[in-house]
Specification:
Structural class of chain B: mainly alpha
Strand order of the largest sheet of chain B: 4-3-2-1-5
Largest sheet of chain B: 5 strands, antiparallel
Radius of gyration of chain A: 21 Å
CATH architecture of the largest domain in chain B: Orthogonal Bundle
Distance between the termini of chain B: 84 Å
Protein name (chain A): Urea ABC transporter permease subunit UrtC
Oligomer: heterodimer
Strand content of chain A: under 5%
Number of helices of chain A: 15
Pfam families (chain A): BPD_transp_2 (PF02653)
Number of domains of chain A: 1
Number of helices of chain B: 22
GO molecular function, one term (chain A): branched-chain amino acid transmembrane transporter activity
CATH topology of the largest domain in chain B: ABC transporter involved in vitamin B12 uptake, BtuC
Keywords (chain A): Cell membrane, Membrane, Transmembrane, Transmembrane helix
CATH class of the largest domain in chain B: Mainly Alpha
Number of strands of chain A: 4
Strand content of chain B: under 5%
Distance between the termini of chain A: 43 Å
Membrane topology (chain A): Multi-pass membrane protein
Shape of chain A: globular
Number of domains of chain B: 2
Number of strands of chain B: 7
Chain lengths: ~375, ~525
């Protein structure tokens, strides 16, 4: 696998920036001008997690033509798995001081831990679940959807329904995931104080590490023979099928991989923001993740990372300076990018490569001409 | 038992006993037990002032003097003799109020209930008979008998007979024949209350218990059917809401193939138009306020329709043939529209009033039909019918169908296709606006109103089959009814989740809905 300049630059920038920020936070006194405050560390970590979600969306949307409007569901599921581990880490330090039950269960009058909470006191098991839960859900959902050739808009709409159904489910108190308050008040991760600056800095560096790892993995996948067939499926699915490939298998593999990547992003997100609740499943969140990719440049991978960081930085800035204008800006971004910037920010800087999708889906518009 | 005999005796030789044991004197005492006895006695005495005195007692306006004279306090604080009605002055310092406790209060309610059986107003008598039925005290039987003898109104008479049957059945001391005869009367009434009375004696040994048990079973069967019908009604009601929300989308998405994520915001704009129309009419023509919704319907159609045309001309027409990009751009548009409304009207819910002719409910057999739901059901079908007629019979509808079926051929025939696109999108948006008028009656009018319907609307259109208005109608009703039948089993939220999961599975099996279009258009 050969890396082009943009890819190397991305990795160096992401990882380098994370390292420098963490180092400055740890090694300089708070009074120093060089000091990076901890809230900036947490914010940067959050952006990197969102970048993982964007990367996952770009992998399926940019290279397999599957517009998922429910990817935040996988992100949130990974987050919940991590949240459950963090809840068990609280132990008897909760408000009610119950060593076996999280606070919200004591509050609801539960007597014992539900069966699906067992095992989450072990970090290894919880991390396995971070991968398995989104992965298995994606496998089941994708197998059903791709096998029966649900494509395009229909797939987008049922992914919306999926995340909406999960939103409703996680709002229920008797699901045993904390209802609409979700999980919060975490104390420790792997024995380290979760509020401590050093833990925060370490989490930022770990997030950067995972993001770069996922980026390299995604690059490897789309550059491989597998990725070439994926692009063929994206551009003309029926022709690929006629050539003897099984598009549904290719789509399923990349779909599950993407869901797992999103889940890992969610798992790293929770300890850095300190809360996970059902609003992460809100259908709007998934659609927002798509706009990150669109802004950065669909089908470029680098663009997904760039877009997620840019848009979220913009969101942070807007919501603190001009809160009432944020939705205007976000809405305008959706409209302007789709109308005038179909190749995203990255598209401004480089010539079109073979790997990128056409801004107009040729098959669809051709069909529109004939019959529509 | 003894008390009953005493009452019977009391009734048989009414005036004599009344003198011997004066209920008025009993009332004028400080002892709860005596007062209670007095209430019962007075109710049975046939005293013409009984109703007045007992109501005064209930309202805490009955007083007595040490010489056992009863006084009624008027609202202005002055006292009058309870029997003669003559004003009493000066001695109010000695007047003491007749105090009551809960046990007296319940006896008092029953007593007043049986006294109202003789009220000249039939509707009061009807209510009184209902109250006596609910209490079903054997003590009320004599009063019921007297009232029945005088009753002329057949509805009231039936209700009184039911009340009497309930009282007789609940009285273990009554003759077996009489109690057995009471069972069919209650069975004929056949509602929850009658079932309750029957069930309370169903455990008793002997033929009465057996008959009651059989009657309970038969009522249960009937009630079950009614509750089934009620569920269907709720389902149709929910389905009609879904139908209204999806009707416009059936045009923009179903016929045109435009993924309009801002569809919900068109509904929201319709609801806000209703709010504005009501405000304006309240300020300028308050006399016509009751008809504000009728004014709001065309206004909402125009507002949402015009905005729809503008959206099509400025945004959507650049994105035809790019469904996923359309989806993102219109999502952005929906955020902007929400924020515009939030800036103009504030983030709080706006109060849209329900006109008088739409509030309340009516009873149809065992069904409770609320007027606003019933009107919305009718309205939804009316809108669908109008939409189908417009597509089928108007020149514009003809052109719309021509353009969607074969754009180039339509253009070759001289149809201005871009203009038709704009009008079609405007029609779909306008219908969404109309839906907003109806939804403003049952939902909170807030900037987020539309978001709650967008996923459901898409589900309905996809479920019914894209491009098929009949499919949309049937899809909406099916989803509504399935949802309402799942609710009692699984709970409201879980029911909705189950419906969503079922829908996801359904779309997997039938990606093109219940009634897929056939032919070449399918590949578009």
């Amino acid at each position: 696998m050969k890396l082009d300049r943009a890819a190397i630059l991305t990795i160096v920038l992401v990882f380098g920036a994370a390292l420098v920020m963490a180092a400055l936070n740890q090694m300089t006194p708070p009074a120093s001008a060089m000091h990076v405050p901890t809230y900036v560390i947490a914010l940067a970590g959050k952006y990197l997690c969102f970048a993982m979600l964007a990367l996952a969306v770009d992998l399926v949307w940019g290279f397999a033509g599957i517009l998922s409007l429910g990817h935040a569901a996988f992100f949130a599921l990974g987050g919940y798995a991590m949240g459950m581990y963090l809840m068990r880490q609280i132990g008897d330090r909760g408000v009610y001081g119950n060593p076996n039950l999280p606070d919200f269960m004591v509050f609801l009058g539960w007597k014992q831990l539900p069966w699906y909470w067992h095992g989450f006191e072990w970090f290894g098991f919880a991390m396995l679940m971070v991968v398995l839960v989104p992965g298995v859900l994606a496998a089941v959902f994708g197998w059903l959807a791709f096998r029966s050739r649900v494509t395009g808009v229909y797939l987008s709409i049922i992914t919306q329904a999926l995340t909406y159904a999960l939103l409703l489910a996680f709002f229920r108190n008797d699901m045993g995931f904390g209802g609409n308050n979700g999980m919060t008040d975490f104390k420790a991760i792997l024995g380290f104080n979760i509020q401590a600056d050093s833990t925060r800095s370490a989490l930022l560096v770990i997030s950067a590490l995972f993001l770069c790892g996922q980026f390299l993995l995604a690059r490897f996948v789309v550059g491989s023979r597998f990725g070439k067939i994926l692009i063929a499926v994206r551009d003309t699915e029926s022709r690929t099928r006629f050539l003897g490939y099984r598009p549904e298998s290719y789509k399923l593999v990349v779909w599950v991989l993407s869901a797992v990547m999103a889940g890992i992003g969610g798992a790293l997100y929770v300890p850095q923001v300190g809360i996970i609740n059902p609003s992460e499943f809100a259908p709007g969140n998934s659609i927002e993740a798509v706009i990150w990719v669109a802004v950065g440049g669909r089908g470029t991978l680098v663009g997904a990372i760039l877009g997620a960081i840019l848009v979220n930085f913009g969101k942070t800035w807007f919501t603190s300076v001009l809160p009432e204008l944020w939705l205007y800006a976000l809405g305008a971004m959706f409209i302007l990018v789709t109308l005038f910037l179909p190749r995203g920010v990255v598209g401004l800087f480089r010539r079109r490569s073979r790997l990128e999708p056409e801004p107009e889906v040729p098959a669809a518009s051709a069909a529109q001409e004939v019959t529509g | 038992m003894l008390r009953l005999l005493a009452l019977l005796l009391l009734l048989l030789c009414g005036p004599l006993v009344a003198h011997a044991d004066d209920p008025l004197a009993e009332l004028a005492s400080g002892s709860f037990d005596t007062v209670r006895q007095g209430v019962e006695d007075l109710a049975q005495s046939g005293n013409p002032n009984a109703a007045k005195i007992l109501s005064a007692l209930q309202n805490g306006q009955l007083y007595y003097l040490p010489d056992h004279t009863l006084l009624i306090q008027a609202d202005d604080g002055s006292y009058a003799n309870a029997i003669t009605g003559k004003a009493v002055s000066d001695d109010d310092a000695e007047a003491r109020s007749v105090r009551i406790n809960n046990s007296i209060r319940s006896v008092l309610d029953a007593a007043l209930g049986s006294l109202r059986l003789f009220d000249p107003n039939p509707s009061v008598r009807l209510n009184a008979a209902g109250a006596v039925f609910d209490a079903h005290q054997p003590a009320a039987i004599p009063a019921l008998d007297r009232a029945l003898a005088k009753e002329t109104d057949s509805a009231v008479k039936t209700r009184m007979q039911q009340a009497r049957a309930a009282a007789v059945l609940s009285d273990p001391g009554a003759a077996q024949d009489a109690r057995l005869a009471a069972v069919p009367v209650l069975r004929a009434r056949g509602d929850e209350a009658a079932r309750g009375v029957l069930a309370s004696v169903a455990d008793q040994p002997g033929p009465v218990g057996a008959a009651a048990k059989a009657a309970v079973a038969s009522i249960d069967r009937v009630l079950q059917l009614w509750s089934l019908a009620q569920s269907v009604y709720y389902g149709i009601s929910l389905g009609s809401v879904l139908l209204l929300a999806a009707a416009g989308l059936a045009i923009t998405f179903g016929v045109m193939g435009v993924i309009n994520m801002a569809h919900g915001e068109m509904v929201m704009l319709g609801a806000y138009t209703t709010f504005v129309v009501q405000q304006v009419m309240h300020a300028y023509v308050p006399s016509l306020y009751g008809g504000s919704l009728l004014v709001a319907i065309p206004m909402a159609f125009l507002v949402a329709g015009l905005i729809g045309v503008v959206i099509e001309r400025s945004l959507i027409r650049w994105l035809y043939g790019r469904p996923l990009e359309t989806l993102l751009a219109t999502w952005g548009l929906s955020l902007v529209l929400q924020q515009v409304v939030r800036s103009l009207f504030g983030a709080d819910n706006r109060n849209v009033t329900t006109p008088d002719w739409m509030s309340g409910a009516t009873q149809l057999g065992g069904l409770t039909l609320t007027w606003n739901r019933t009107y919305i059901i009718l309205f939804a079908f009316l809108v669908m019918a109008a939409l189908m007629a417009a597509l089928r019979y108007t020149p514009l509808g003809l052109r719309m169908r021509a353009v969607t079926q074969n754009r180039r051929m339509a253009a070759a025939m001289g149809i201005r296709t871009p203009w038709i696109d704009a009008l079609t999108f405007g029609l779909g948006s306008g219908v969404a606006g109309i839906a907003g008028v109806a939804l403003s009656q049952i939902d909170n009018v807030s900037p987020n109103l539309g978001q709650g319907y967008i996923i459901d609307s898409f589900m309905v259109v996809v479920f019914g089959g894209v491009g098929n208005l009949w499919g949309t109608t049937l899809g909406a009703l099916t989803l509504g009814i399935v949802n309402k039948f799942l609710e009692p089993i699984a709970g409201a939220v879980l029911g909705k989740i189950v419906v969503l999961v079922l829908l996801i599975l359904f779309v997997q099996r039938n990606p093109r809905g219940m009634f897929p279009l056939k032919g070449r258009a399918v590949e578009a």
